[in-house]
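Deliverable D5.2: sample structural annotation.
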Amino acid sequence: MSSLSTIVTIILVILCPGTAFSMVFQENADTATINNNTKDAYIIARRNPDMSVQLGHKSLAASKIIMYTKGMADASLALGMAYLAKYNIGDSAYFYNMQALDLYHDLDDNQGQARACYALAYVYSFKGKLEESESYGTLSLSFFEEADDKRGMVNTFNVLTYLARQQKDFEKARGLVQQAIETARSINDTLPLADALNSLGNIYKDMALFNEAIDSYFEALRLWEMKGDSNGLSIAYGSIGNMYYYQKDYDIALKFNFKKLSISEAAGDLWEVSKTLNNISQIYSSKAEYDSALFFIRKSINLTREMNYPSGVANACYNMAKTMLLKSEVDSAFFYINSAIKLAIEIKDPAIVNYYITLGHVYKVQNNYTLALQNAFTGYNMAKKQNLPIVVAQASALLSDIYSLMGRNDLAYDYIVEYHYLNDSISNDEFHKRIIRMDIQYDYDRKQKAAEFAQMQERIVNENRIKQQGLYLKGLLILILLLAIISILYIRHSRFRAQFARIDLEQRLLRAQMNPHFIFNSLCAVQDFILAGKPQKANAFLTKIARLMRNILENTREEYIALDKEIETLKLYLDVQQLRFETKFEYNFIIDKSIDPENFSIPPMLAQPCVENSIEHGLLARKIKGHLSISYTLKNDLLMLEVTDDGVGREQAVMVSNPNMKKQSISTRLTEKRLGHFRKALKEKNISYEIIDLYEGSEAMGTKVVMMLPYKKIYA
């Protein structure tokens, strides 16, 4: 009640006590109604902003009539939040939140000022003014701290974390979100804690720390499931969908994103809807389903424009440009990427680093290599400065392509080496991606069952308090269910352990096959060709090495591959070795007429260690040119592989000093273990591995390796 109204009331009490009492009673009744209407408006501001606006204006008008300052401040804040949910239509969100801040300042209400500053931080964020947004976020945090409102502090830490992520300052973002998590845990506040854990997962995702991201996402999901929070579940579905997208499981990624979209649309959460539409478009684009991608991108662009959300519009235009480029519609791609860059410059959007790289791709397709290099270097330098390894790798690949097209193979080589180094450090090869995919599915199933089990336990405890007579029966049911779950989990664990053992063998074999000594010597050979002024020979050699490495990585992802693919990889390896050692040996393949190489599939990369041993320890020790023969024949329902060389033999090879002998023996043991795995899994005792020393009289004439391999027919 204002001081003027108090004076008027005192005068009326003296002159007309009955009337004064009636006025005081009426004003108290009015303030109670105003407070209730304002509270309702604030609660439904995000879910139903139009209804919130009506209630807010009604409360504001009523507060002005009786000069109720607290009511005007609360109503203004509710209106500001409602208009914020409508995304600044007419800039009303800024006006009413600023009005609320001024009124709370007059009232010296720290908590009110904190909430108004919190809302203003979001207002400026949607405008793309990140510095002003951070300023109000910091101010909001100080007010919440003065008011000792820990839940408000948690929410503000989350806002500041989001802003730090937008600015690509991941270390700062991680520090802020850790403070949010610690504060939320100190007051056992479940929903803000789940929000903070999901934000931590987003930070880890941006830093390419996918395992840590998964842990944070699933912990957040568990908390949201416990509370039955549909909005939280929507966020979790989106986060998990993104992880499947990064692992190229596009169908599952779409399933999770469509789950999120339905929840966000039902809640009227336009911000989440726009982001989800954008994610869905990217997934369809990756699946090469460009019409579907364009449909969802256009919906995203229209929605972000309707929301007056400039950074969202820029990002949607960027995705549109990428899709148009994939469809070879270069002019449209050029238009959209320039629109994204122009808008990003206006709002100082850090995501512009990706836009410059895409513009570089457009100029490359247009054969404008000068502008392509300029934009690629702009993105490359910005990504280096912002410490974005994924983006630096993308820029390096683009620079390598451009320099290659310009005939600058030396620079093209430098940047492709940087790309592979960064890409390997981020993804840690295809095996790790495969394992992470398994971890995602396994963790999701396990944690979902754990959450269901926890809910079931809580429900049973409550029922036992009401009905003691059912204690023993329910206890027995719990025990049976627990044993069933443990049995299921044990069986699943045993299966996963067997799979992981096989993957470990394959991964160790891959490490043995990707011999660092071989790769180093091969690259040195390329360098020698370049220095010797033989770029064409260097290019041919580098092409064969690249194809060989790609084939090895692709082949070892599968348990069986087509025989012609295996032979192609072996030929690439043998060609590289011939180039390295100036054709000190020759080779040939012998394929039984009853074998169709395109229809027969075998376990990959079993012959390569034997071939490498023959070359390194048998043929290269000869003073004259040697010969290597590789044959495939059918015998006793198995495929017999024979690798025969006319080298110096094993005894002579052992006498020659060779630093790679240890490595070779490791690859041989791994090959035997892999065959042992197939022997056990297929229950085929004839699967075998044998090394035979060849003699002519007492003189060693070479070595033969015989392997009996399982095979499958691709077409019956």
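Annotation notes: The mean pLDDT is 81. The beta strands are 561-562, 585-591, 600-602, 626-635, 638-645, 688-696, 699-709, 712-713.
The annotation will be released with the project's public dataset once the embargo ends.
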